[in-house]
C-alpha cells in the first residue's frame, strides 16, 4: 500500500452543477467548462443523454474541477453553501431521486485539504504534523471498517427507548458509495479551496504514511475543538465499550489528577471555575491561527453561557423532538462522563418527563443548532409554582471532547512540544508507526 485512494462524498442533491477547469476524460471523450446534471428515473441526465453513473478524470494531473452549492457545517449554526474546487476525479452516482457527487484522490492529497479545512494552516508545524497523523489514522480506519459494510448513511444507535428514557448516540458515518463524507460528521474536507499555506502541505509530507496504532490496528483517532480541561472517554459519547487510546486525560503539562467529574458537586465546581489547561487561552493571535473564518465566529468556548426564557426553551425542545413537554420545570443531569459532560439528562415538564442521551442528542435537543458541549450546569430564575421563567446554562468546552483537543494541541505546538509528544499526551495507549 502506498498512498491509497480515498473516496469522499461532497454533495447530494437533485442536480449537480460543476465546472471542469481544464480538460477531463469521460466516456472516451473530452469535456471541459460549465456542466449541468440532473436525475430522472434513477439515471443521470447530462448533455441530453442518460447514464448509470459518470466518472470525470483529469486529462492532466494538475486539472481541477469546481462544484457549486456545496453545503458545509450541516446542521450546525455556521451552515452555509460554497463553491469549492477539487483535485482528482469526480464521480456522479444516482441515488434514488438525487445525485451523489464523489471526489476520488490519493489520501495524502486529501489530508492537505483536511489540515487546512479543520483549522487555519498558519498554526505551528508540530501541531499540523500531529493533526496530519490523526486525520490519516482516522481516514484509513474508516476504509478498513466501511468497505464491505452493507449499511449506508449515518448510524443511529438506540441503546434504550421507553416511556422514561431515550438514549441514542450518533457515531461515524458508514457509507457504501464512498469512504467518508466531506463535512464535520466525518472530517471537514473542502478540496483545494482551503489549501492556503505551504505549512499544511509540509506537515503532510513530513509525516507521510504515519499512523497511530493499537493492538496492530489503526486507531480511530477522534478529536474535538476544545476539551474544556479534561478529555472525555469514548464510552460516554458513543457505544458502551472501552477504547484504550480514547481515555480521559487532564489537559496540562504535568497531567495532574482528574477530579471525579462524574460527581455532580465536583462537576459543578469544575465547570464554574476556569482551571489552567492547554486549551484555556484567550490569545486571539494564536486562536486566529487555529480557527478558520466561520469557527472564529465562536468567541467563548473554554467556558460559555447560554440563556433561555421559558418560552424559548419549551419551543426549542418541541421543535427538535416534536413532543410537547408542557412548561419546562427542570433540566436534571442524571449521569456525567469523566470530563463532566452530561450523557443522560432528564427533561422535566408539566406534561411529560424523559431522560435523554447521549451527549450529542442532548446538545441537539436543547439548542437551535448544537450546544457547544454537554458539559454544563443549570441555573433557573424567578420560579412561580415550580415553573422557572428562565434557564442559564454555564458550560465547558466545544465538541464531544474525545481524543485530541485541537486548541490544546495547538497551544502545545506554540509552546515548543513536538508532534510525537502531542500525540502521546492525547492518545496514551497508542503507538506511532510508519504504515506505508
What does this molecule look like?
This protein has about 425 residues and is an alpha+beta fold. The chain is built from 9 helices and 24 strands. The chain has helices at about 105-120, 125-145, 200-205, 265-270, 285-290, 310-320, 360-365, 405-415, 420-425; strands at about 5-15, 15-25, 30-40, 45, 50, 55-60, 65-70, 80-85, 90-95, 100-105, 155-160, 165-175, 180, 210-215, 215-220, 225, 305-310, 330-335, 340-350, 355, 375-380, 390-395, 405, 430-435. The strands form 5 sheets. Strands 1, 2, 3, 4, 5, 6, 7, 8, 9, 10 and 13 form an 11-stranded mixed beta sheet that branches. It has a 5-stranded mixed beta sheet with strand order 11-12-20-19-18, sandwiched between helices. Helix 1 packs across helix 2 (about 125-145). It is globular.
Topology of this structure?
Blueprint: E1 5-13, E2 15-26, E3 29-40, E4 43-46, E5 49-51, E6 54-58, E7 64-72, E8 80-86, E9 89-95, E10 98-106, H1 107-118, H2 125-146, E11 153-161, E12 165-174, E13 180-181, H3 198-206, E14 210-214, E15 217-218, E16 223-224, H4 264-272, H5 284-290, E17 303-309, H6 310-321, E18 328-336, E19 342-349, E20 353-357, H7 359-365, E21 376-381, E22 390-396, E23 404-405, H8 406-414, H9 419-426, E24 431-434
Parallel strand pairs: 1-13, 12-20, 16-23
Antiparallel strand pairs: 1-10, 2-3, 2-6, 2-7, 3-4, 4-5, 6-9, 7-8, 9-10, 11-12, 14-15, 14-24, 17-22, 18-19, 19-20, 21-22
Amino acid at each position: 500500500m502506498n498512498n491509497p485512494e480515498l473516496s469522499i462524498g461532497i454533495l447530494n442533491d437533485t442536480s449537480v452543477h460543476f465546472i471542469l477547469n481544464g480538460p477531463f476524460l469521460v466516456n472516451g471523450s473530452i469535456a471541459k467548462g460549465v456542466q449541468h446534471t440532473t436525475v430522472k428515473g434513477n439515471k443521470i441526465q447530462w448533455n441530453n443523454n442518460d447514464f448509470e453513473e459518470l466518472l470525470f478524470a483529469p486529462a492532466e494531473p494538475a486539472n481541477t474541477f469546481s462544484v457549486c452549492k456545496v453545503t458545509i457545517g450541516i446542521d450546525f449554526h455556521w451552515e452555509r453553501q460554497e463553491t469549492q474546487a477539487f483535485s482528482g476525479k469526480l464521480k456522479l452516482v444516482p441515488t434514488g431521486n438525487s445525485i451523489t457527487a464523489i471526489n476520488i484522490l490519493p489520501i495524502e492529497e486529501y489530508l492537505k485539504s483536511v489540515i487546512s479545512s479543520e483549522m487555519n494552516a498558519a498554526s505551528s508545524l508540530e501541531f499540523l504534523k500531529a493533526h496530519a497523523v490523526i486525520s490519516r489514522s482516522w481516514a484509513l480506519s474508516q476504509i478498513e471498517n466501511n468497505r464491505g459494510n452493507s449499511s449506508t448513511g449515518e448510524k443511529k444507535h438506540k441503546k434504550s427507548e421507553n416511556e422514561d428514557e431515550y438514549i441514542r448516540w450518533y457515531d461515524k458515518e458508514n457509507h457504501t458509495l464512498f469512504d467518508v463524507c466531506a463535512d464535520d460528521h466525518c472530517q471537514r474536507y473542502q478540496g483545494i479551496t482551503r489549501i492556503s499555506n505551504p505549512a499544511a502541505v509540509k506537515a503532510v509530507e513530513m509525516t507521510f504514511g504515519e499512523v497511530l496504532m493499537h493492538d496492530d490496528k489503526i486507531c480511530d483517532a477522534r478529536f474535538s475543538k476544545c476539551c474544556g480541561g479534561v478529555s472525555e472517554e469514548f464510552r460516554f459519547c458513543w457505544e458502551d465499550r472501552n477504547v484504550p487510546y480514547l481515555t480521559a486525560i487532564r489537559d496540562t503539562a504535568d497531567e495532574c489528577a482528574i477530579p471525579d467529574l462524574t460527581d455532580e458537586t465536583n462537576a459543578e465546581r469544575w465547570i464554574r471555575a476556569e482551571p489552567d489547561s492547554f486549551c484555556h487561552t484567550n490569545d486571539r493571535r494564536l486562536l486566529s491561527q487555529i480557527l478558520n473564518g466561520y469557527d472564529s465566529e465562536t468567541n467563548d468556548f473554554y467556558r460559555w453561557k447560554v440563556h433561555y426564557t421559558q418560552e424559548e426553551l419549551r419551543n426549542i425542545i418541541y421543535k427538535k423532538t416534536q413532543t410537547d413537554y408542557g412548561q419546562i420545570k427542570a433540566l436534571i443531569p442524571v449521569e456525567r462522563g469523566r470530563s463532566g459532560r452530561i450523557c443522560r439528562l432528564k427533561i422535566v415538564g408539566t406534561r411529560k418527563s424523559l431522560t435523554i442521551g447521549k451527549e450529542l442528542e442532548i446538545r441537539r435537543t436543547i439548542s437551535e443548532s448544537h450546544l457547544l458541549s454537554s458539559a454544563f450546569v443549570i441555573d433557573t430564575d424567578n420560579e412561580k409554582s415550580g415553573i422557572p421563567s428562565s434557564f442559564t446554562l454555564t458550560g465547558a468546552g466545544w465538541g464531544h471532547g474525545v481524543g485530541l483537543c485541537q486548541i490544546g494541541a495547538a497551544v502545545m505546538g506554540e509552546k515548543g512540544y513536538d508532534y510525537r509528544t502531542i500525540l502521546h499526551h492525547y492518545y496514551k495507549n497508542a503507538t506511532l508507526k510508519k504504515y506505508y
